[in-house]
């Protein structure tokens, strides 16, 4: 092997404060963005808000809520999931580049605390090796609450088990027998692991104490106390109109008194440097808000186009749609769509919905078409509501009924959907006629 010093060019991600803020602005709800703009106004003399905004906002709020306006829009600030994790990350003894990559991963986590992006795609996106991404991800997985940064439910539970106690049977169940555990097939698990049913039961009780969505332990406290729709969808004569609701955001102007001072040659160097920095901040803010609006509108327009039947016919006509589908149409990264739909809402003729509501997986039918899980759940609920209460449908019978609709899903999938809708099993639903 030849020894020596060689130059090697390699692009590295630089998580600058502006990049972090741009990510935050995209995923801010309307309330959070309003608060952020107010905060910048206090520290940047060049940023000036339209004076008529507050009176218009007050009138709008009174009209909407019939209560006092300001407290309905502003909540006490609590650190977000990402902010809490970044603060923890600062205490880990890791290299600067690893920290920046770990911060990037933190900002890509979904609200449940999972890292759903492909590690290979992330490596390509950041021009790093897969090993570097995996190392940074391992640092994120050291943070609290345990289970954060997992790429799957299985990994999430294993991380929590490793941190709590050394229970080999529980670890083996999570790693190899999760499906059997979901159906409480304790005997089958005991036979496979060559242990007693009592040991499996104790492991099950331990697994029950784990949290499958650790991000909610933090993010559930970081929601607006008052929801303002980002979009308004109206339907008339079988046509859909989409409106971006920016009435609750102030118009941002440049304070010309300070801007003129920036042009004066007699201003001292310190003042010039300070004002130049603040002017760049003003330009960056207006540009970021403009980009946020365009991205949100593009994403929402795609959702409306793909979920046309939902808006025209009602919530029971949801089509299968994924983040990846929208990202491909909008020509952006899947994580951008995820951030753009976080804590964003649309007012429809059928009520207020979070944008994430319109993303649902699907099952391919015999004809090749895809039926959304939302539609399947609706059918299951309809079958159960119309069943003979003395002889309720079993999960297998429900699967057979769905097969009659050319929807082929397994019994355990029916059970999963039923449990997600908080519908008890047939044995619990069974009602005996009293004579």
Radius of gyration: 26 Å
Q: How far from one another are the termini? A: 91 Å
Total strands: the figure is 8
The count of helical stretches stands at 23
Give the % helix.
Answer: 40-55%
Derived structural class: alpha+beta
Q: Characterize the main sheet.
A: 4 strands, mixed
What percent strand? 5-15%
Task: Trace the largest sheet across and list its strands.
Answer: 3-2-5-6
Basic shape: globular
Low-confidence segments, given as residue ranges, are 54-76
Overall pLDDT, averaged?
80
Which terms summarize this structure?
single chain; 435 residues; alpha+beta; four-stranded mixed sheet; two-stranded antiparallel sheet; 23 helices; 54% helix
Describe the structure in your own words:
The strands form 3 sheets. A 4-stranded mixed sheet has the order 3-2-5-6. Strands 1-4 form a two-stranded antiparallel sheet. A two-stranded antiparallel sheet has the order 7-8. Helix 12 crosses helix 13 and helix 15 (256-263) packs across helix 16 (269-306). Helices cover 54% and strands 7% of the residues. The protein contains 23 helices and 8 strands. The protein has helices at residues 17-27, 30-43, 53-65, 70-73, 81-89, 96-108, 119-126, 130-140, 153-164, 168-176, 178-182, 186-193, 197-208, 216-219, 256-263, 269-306, 308-313, 323-330, 334-340, 373-385, 395-403, 411-420, 426-429; strands at 47-49, 231-236, 239-244, 252-254, 345-348, 351-354, 362-364, 370-372. With 435 residues, it is of the alpha+beta class.
């Amino acid at each position: 092997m030849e020894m020596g010093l060689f130059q090697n060019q390699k692009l590295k991600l630089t998580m600058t404060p502006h990049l972090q803020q741009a990510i935050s602005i995209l995923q801010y709800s309307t309330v959070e963005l309003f608060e952020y703009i107010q905060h910048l106004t206090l520290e940047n003399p060049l940023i000036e808000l339209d004076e008529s905004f507050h009176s218009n906002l007050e009138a709008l709020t009174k009209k909407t809520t019939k209560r006092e306006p300001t407290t309905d829009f502003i909540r006490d600030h609590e650190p977000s999931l990402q902010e809490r994790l970044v603060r923890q990350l600062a205490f880990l003894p890791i290299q600067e580049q690893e920290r920046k990559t770990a911060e990037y991963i933190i900002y890509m986590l979904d609200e449940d605390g999972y890292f759903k992006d492909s590690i290979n795609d992330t490596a390509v996106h950041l021009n790093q090796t897969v090993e570097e991404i995996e190392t940074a991800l391992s640092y994120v997985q050291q943070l609290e609450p345990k289970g954060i940064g997992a790429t799957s439910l299985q990994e999430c539970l294993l991380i929590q088990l490793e941190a709590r106690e050394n229970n080999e049977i529980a670890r083996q169940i999570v790693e190899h027998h999760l499906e059997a555990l979901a159906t409480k097939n304790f005997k089958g698990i005991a036979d496979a692991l060559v242990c007693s049913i009592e040991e499996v039961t104790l492991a099950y009780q331990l697994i029950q104490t784990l949290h499958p969505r650790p991000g909610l332990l933090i993010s559930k406290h970081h929601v607006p106390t008052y929801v303002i729709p980002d979009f308004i969808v109206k339907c008339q004569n079988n046509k859909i109109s989409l409106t971006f609701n920016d009435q609750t955001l102030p118009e941002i102007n440049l304070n010309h008194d300070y801007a003129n001072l920036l042009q004066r040659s007699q201003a001292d160097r310190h003042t010039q440097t300070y004002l130049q920095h603040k002017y760049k901040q003003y330009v960056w803010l207006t540009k970021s808000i403009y980009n946020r609006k365009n991205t949100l509108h593009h994403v929402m327009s795609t959702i409306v186009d793909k979920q046309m039947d939902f808006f025209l016919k009602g919530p029971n006509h949801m089509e299968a749609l994924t983040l990846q589908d929208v990202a491909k149409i909008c020509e952006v990264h899947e994580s951008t769509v995820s951030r753009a739909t976080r804590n964003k809402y649309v007012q429809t003729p059928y009520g207020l919905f979070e944008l994430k509501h319109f993303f649902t997986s699907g099952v391919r039918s015999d004809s090749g078409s895809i039926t959304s899980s939302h539609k399947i759940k609706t059918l299951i609920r309809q079958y159960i509501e119309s069943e003979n209460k003395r002889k309720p449908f079993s999960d297998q019978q429900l699967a057979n009924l769905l097969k009659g609709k050319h929807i082929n899903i397994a019994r355990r999938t029916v059970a999963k959907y039923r449990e997600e809708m908080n519908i008890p099993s047939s044995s619990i639903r069974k009602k005996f006629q009293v004579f």
